[in-house]
Amino acid sequence: MFTGIVEELGEVVAIENLGDSSRFRLRGPVVTEDAKHGDSIAVNGVCLTVVDTADGEFTADVMAETLHRSSLGALAAGSRVNLERPMALGGRLGGHLVQGHVDGTGTIVDRTPAEHWEIVKIALPAALSRYVVEKGSITVDGVSLTVVDAADDYFTISLIPTTLALTTLGIKKAGDPVNLEVDVLAKYVERLLGRGADGRGDLDEIKEMDR
Fold it and tell me: I need a labelling partner for 37 at 20 to 30 A (CA). Which of 105, 125, 128, 204 fits?
């Protein structure tokens, strides 16, 4: 479990294509200082398992499913990435509960600079729009953010100088893909209420029983 508070701006050192998967080698002296084989590290919001570590670098195997569902497949040697270690029980929850399980990818539509911050508009898949609400939480490339505006096919976020300076969101351009993870609590509520693809389900049955 993560919080979406990026610890370090890392870098892809090398990517080895293994056919139906890839092996990534990434540089991250901060996140590797106590990492060992089998630990988890979030890379642009994607939870990866550490294979080994050495000299401030770690390797991780990325399966075809992850490459298909996230933007990791678009990375290359030299790409900058957001890195975060899992939260420690008993520690402060600085962002929100983040699993590192990407729900889909969005695309940066445009960026509007302001005096002390920047508004970023991101297009998102229609299937995810129902989980995104104004003032709610969303994870973009592993960064826990608050939604400013929410529409059927896009949302906006406001980035403070710290986020712009210490994460990849400061260097992403219009047209670049980003990994999206919606609030898992919203998905659990939907499941428990039995909402189907048409927006109906057990909730309608409960209402009928109450009459």
Answer: 105
